[in-house]
Amino acid sequence: MSIEGLPICSRNEVSEFLEDELLPKWQKGNPTLFRIEPEHVDARIEKTVESVIANNGTYVTGERVAINSRPDALPMAAEIGNVLEKLGHKTCIIYDLLGDPPSLNKLMTGLPNRKSLEQVVGQYEALVDFAQHWMRPYATPHSEPNRKEKEAVVAFTEVVMKGISKLNEKREKGEIKSQDVIGFPVEHEAKRLGLSLSEWEPVLYRAMGITRNELDKEIDKTGYVKVLGEAYAGKTLRIVRKGDYVVNLTMKVKDRPIFKDVGRVGYNTICGKYFERITNIPPGEICMAPVEDSVNGEFYTKIPQVTERGKMEGVHIVFRNGRVVKATADKGEEVLCYYTGLAKPETTAKKAVYEGQNTIAELGIGMNPVLDFEKVTGNPLIDEKMKGIHIATGTNIMLGGKTPGAIGGIAVDHWDFMVGKIDEIITL
């Protein structure tokens, strides 16, 4: 089935469509993805989308855009499709079932033979082939999945990752001109900040629409440019936080590009040259791939880490020579072991993938001045731009590191652990 031949519905008809149209197909052994119709939703979202596309700098009339949308971000996805099609682009909005664990579990339970999921792998492969730009409107699931739902998410994740395994490779070749992940204000994330949705929406839209010049000024104010320049030249970085949630990490970033994420594709670096094709909206961070075997030390974080596999709380991670040697959590330790590569490989092929996820990937420093919160939303796309640091494991080739985006046709995950504000970053 071609991408254009996938079934389609409006964003307001999803529940009925899943029950009446999609479930019978899956029950007959014909699993399929489905599309969402583009539509105008809200003038504020429209203005934000127009700003994001203009700031990106790579969209040319007539190009094809794949929009792989989380369910809670469908208003953003539909508006993106509306704006892009008015600009002359061809779009395809896919409903990301991973963000809807209850529906996914129902579909997977009704499927008579899981071998037929190869059809869905092929549909994701066709979506990657269709795309010249890849957009991912993102919001976290509004509820914690139960055990059966988690199992469905884990199984379907394998399908999705296999289907999109060439996405990173195509992006690195320039066949995907930009890969854009875009946040969307939702009530359950606002509540974690102690805000109502009506209070949170203007804040997030402002953070998403912040200009490149504003972010450059914010970065200059921190004094990090000098410190990171010394680290790029060869000195060791040391990151410290005292108190109950200790951070004590050392690492090298010698000759690794040090990015300043300002929402634009191109040579956005403080040190080194690297053509970046990924934008994360809201923008506003400094990030880099540490030299993989140079990272030693530990960090604790009290910030909840919200994933489609479940929530992690009270995380403690220890690195030795760039690998995670210990990872514990007060809640969600099984999820933590997956993202840090300490889980037992289910297959021989997964062993190398978990070794990739066991490796340091990124040091990130949040810089968006609008997002100066002591609390977090639970959405890493937003939280990584808040004042503080995050540490990632997994793939980092997109940041100039050595861990690939896929091994043996299986995607290597990249997960950002939100650590929060620190006392100092210095060079030794």
Fraction in beta strands? 15-25%
Structural class by secondary-structure content: alpha+beta
Distance between the termini: 57 Å
Major sheet strand order: 1-2-4-3-5-6-11
The residue fraction in helices comes out at 25-40%
Specify the overall morphology: globular
Rg result: 21 Å
Report the uncertain regions.
none
Tell me the major beta sheet: 7 strands, mixed
Mean pLDDT: 93
Helix segment count? Answer: 14
Number of domains: 2
Total strands: the figure is: 23
Summary keywords:
Thermophilic metalloprotease-like, six-stranded antiparallel beta sheet, 14 helices, 23 strands, 25% strand
Task: Note the topology.
Elements: E1 8-9, H1 14-27, E2 35-36, H2 43-56, E3 64-69, H3 74-86, E4 90-95, H4 101-110, H5 118-130, E5 133-138, H6 147-163, H7 167-172, E6 178-183, H8 187-192, H9 197-208, H10 212-222, H11 224-232, E7 237-241, E8 247-251, E9 258-261, E10 269-271, E11 278-281, E12 285-288, E13 296-301, E14 305-307, E15 310-312, E16 315-320, E17 323-328, H12 333-339, H13 348-357, E18 360-366, H14 380-383, E19 388-394, E20 406-407, E21 410-411, E22 414-420, E23 424-427
Parallel strand pairs: 1-2, 3-4, 3-5, 5-6, 6-11
Antiparallel strand pairs: 2-4, 7-8, 7-23, 8-13, 9-10, 9-12, 12-18, 13-16, 14-15, 16-17, 18-19, 19-22, 20-21
Written overview of the protein:
The protein is of the alpha+beta class and 428 residues long. The protein folds into two domains: 3-184, Thermophilic metalloprotease-like (3-Layer(aba) Sandwich), CATH 3.40.1830; 211-267 and 281-427, no CATH class. The protein has 14 helices and 23 strands. It has helices at 14-27, 43-56, 74-86, 101-110, 118-130, 147-163, 167-172, 187-192, 197-208, 212-222, 224-232, 333-339, 348-357, 380-383, and strands spanning 8-9, 35-36, 64-69, 90-95, 133-138, 178-183, 237-241, 247-251, 258-261, 269-271, 278-281, 285-288, 296-301, 305-307, 310-312, 315-320, 323-328, 360-366, 388-394, 406-407, 410-411, 414-420, 424-427. A hairpin with a 2-residue loop joins strand 14 and strand 15 (310-312). Helix 2 crosses helix 3 and helix 4 packs across helix 6. The longest helix has 17 residues, at 147-163. The mean pLDDT is 93.
